[in-house]
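Figure caption, in words: inputs first, then the predicted bound structure.
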Amino acid sequence: MAANQYDVIVVGARCAGSPTAMLLARQGYRVLLVDRATFPSDTISTHVIQPTGIAALDRWGLLGQLLSTQCPPVDTYAFDFGPFTIAGSPGTDDSPVAYAPRRTVLDTLLVGAAAAAGAEVREGFTVEKVLTEGGRVTGIRGHGKGGQVVSEHARVVIGADGLHSAVAAAVRPQHYHDKPPLLCGYYAYWSGLPMDGRFETYIRPHRGWGVCPTHDGLTVVVAGWPYAEFAANKTDIEGNYLKTFDLAPEFAERIRAARRESRIVGTTVPNYFRQPYGPGWALAGDAGYNKDPITAQGISDAFRDAELCAIALDQALSGACSFGEAMGRYQTARDEHVLPMYEFTTQLATLQPPPEELRHLLTAIHGNQDAMDGFARTNAGVTSPADFFSEENTGRIFAASHAAAS
Ligand SMILES: Cc1cc2nc3c(=O)[nH]c(=O)nc-3n(C[C@H](O)[C@H](O)[C@H](O)COP(=O)(O)OP(=O)(O)OC[C@H]3O[C@@H](n4cnc5c(N)ncnc54)[C@H](O)[C@@H]3O)c2cc1C
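Bound structure (flavin-adenine dinucleotide present):
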């Protein structure tokens, strides 16, 4: 058996991989972090970090670095349903705002934090093969840019390598709660579209779009339509993207006065859970769990995975408990936390008009600031949809609405 040069090898150095590597390196583990990208590097994402994700950056001592990049804070989420808008605060007293930093900025900061913690970072390194011995993952084989093929060994290899994870492809984990792609989202950056701390979402039958401020005075505008229209609309993405905004004339006027500063990019993604561990391996971030980006949860979820996975691995590697026990707790905590949001997200991503019962609830929420804050926090993933849509809470909202009307 090859000697373990590392305790942990992490494949993928963005939202899931770098924090996992950083947290383990801070615990004193020997960590190798590799990514085929070289940073700063962009990736497809509209990059809203929810207040829960911002709280993680704060816990890790990285929020100050982000704030020094002059990323504008977002203190209000506004959901325009046509007849009315529900606007509320997405955060809590401890973490009141969201930010939408460019991935070129965020991911570079995260890779730097992993290196500063003592992880060995290899950028521009592509993993070609996951090495196994007797059914157990033991390392990776890959190469740097133009470099020789090398093999590296570790006690655990973590796939934080995204949707098309090479680690997941090698270990073929069990999938569950799978749902097909539901929506296609396309986005571009605009100047001259001031947002004043607001993240606006527009909901129309079979269409939706989101508008959020980011670095450099730019605003990211993402528009989506059902996956069923993917093929038909692909021939004129720009035309369909721009036409979508006509469904809200006031917004259409604002964006017509703005200037598009980038090309339009987009994609569609499948929805799934994957078993996130097995002999010698673990998965974190999109590699282990993915859902439509309509609720902008991926980065904050990846941060949570990083913490849960690093805690579990520390317990396993230090011998405090068995690998299976520790990683089983990681899987349970992840799934219990994200499942209600997964169902909420995949329902929203159908872009079906809200059913009658929900329409009544939305009408009752509108104008009740506590309820509007609760709705904003639910969409932010700060409050669980299971709690917000519980009989008890919706009963309170309807009662307040009746009281106000009488
Ligand atoms: C259109 C769109 C909009 C989105 N908007 C938001 C949003 O507003 N807010 C939000 O929170 N989330 C959003 N998301 C989701 C979010 O971008 C992801 O959840 C997040 O990037 C996941 O991070 P990750 O680290 O798990 O994976 P990734 O960001 O995919 O990183 C994986 C890394 O692994 C590396 N890698 C892969 N294979 C190899 C290999 N063989 N060898 C070496 N390196 C490898 C890649 O180079 C990459 O750097 C959006 C997604 C999409 C598609």
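The CA atoms of residues 191 and 218 lie 5 Å apart.
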